Amino acid sequence: MSENGFVALFSGINVGGNRIVKMAELRAFFEELGFTDVASYVQSGNVVFRSAQTDIAALTQTLEEAFEKRWGFHSRIMVRDAAWFARLVADNPYPEIAEAPTKLHAMTLEREPTSDEIGRLAERCTGPERFEVKGDILYLHAPDGLGKSKFAEILPRTLKVPGTMRNWRSVLALAEMIGPTR
User: Fold this and answer.
1) 157 CB-contact burial (10 Å; exposed 0-12 / middle 13-18 / buried 19+)
2) Pfam families this protein is in (predicted)?
């Protein structure tokens, strides 16, 4: 049986010196669970792996439960496959910003937001940022960077759809690591 490539995006680990998880330990954890070709990218919790399992919801549940048991706290984990990452890159509504990876971000959302949820967020986006939602991805152009963005600060509690943000450099690196769809 052939194995499929996936990326697990963790939220809420290794941020501000809290909930520290060493990447070597996280890679070993994935291998103990039977996943192969395990690799991590930067410290914020991005793990590329292969699995014969194709049910993303089941993979997510397995990982979240095992992670909480091992580390003693919950981390929301978004598992996505190679086709999803290829679409994420191809659908970028701001290609002119792609060369400035600290100004372009993609937020992986747990689910596709409703038009009402997107509308509420649009009302709060008064500039200089701009965003676009495509399915379960929110693209954010923050011209002054994420750290200075007041909009990025209010985004999660305004949208109310759980998600995790990555800058465009991370998006491209993960897309390359997961490889082409088979």
Assistant:
1) exposed
2) DUF1697
Q: Are 68 and 90 contained in the same domain?
A: no
Q: What is the mean pLDDT of the chain?
A: 91
Alpha-carbon radius of gyration of the chain: 16
* Entry pTM: 0.92
143: Cβ contacts below 8 Å, ≥ 6 apart = 103, 128, 129
Q: What is the mean pLDDT of residues 40-46?
A: 86
DSSP assignment, residue 72? S
| Tokens 């792609």, residue located | 98
Q: To which residue do tokens 């792996």 refer?
A: 49
**Would you say residue 179 lies in a domain?**
no
**169 & 94 share domain:** yes
pLDDT above 90 coverage of the chain, percent: 75
**Domain harbouring 104, CATH code:** 3.30.70
Closest CA to 79 of 91, 92, 66: 66
Separation between Cα atoms, residue 79 and residue 46, nearest integer Å: 10
Least confident span in 3-7, 119-123, 132-136? 3-7
